[in-house]
Design a protein that fits this description.
mainly alpha
Length: 50
């Protein structure tokens, strides 16, 4: 994306940019949910010290 932007606005493949942004929008909240679940399981297994 950066190289295309240095050449011209039309050189950027905006479909790929949309896919990357969509992946980030889905991945970051999913990681937060998984981390929260791991924290809850850790507290249940090891007590409140986690």
């Amino acid at each position: 994306m950066g190289v295309g932007a240095t050449r011209s606005y039309s050189a950027v493949k905006w479909g790929v940019v949309r896919e990357i942004v969509a992946a980030w929008v889905l991945t970051i909240p999913a990681a937060v949910i998984v981390a929260g679940l791991c924290c809850l399981v850790g507290r249940a297994v090891f007590g409140g010290g986690v």
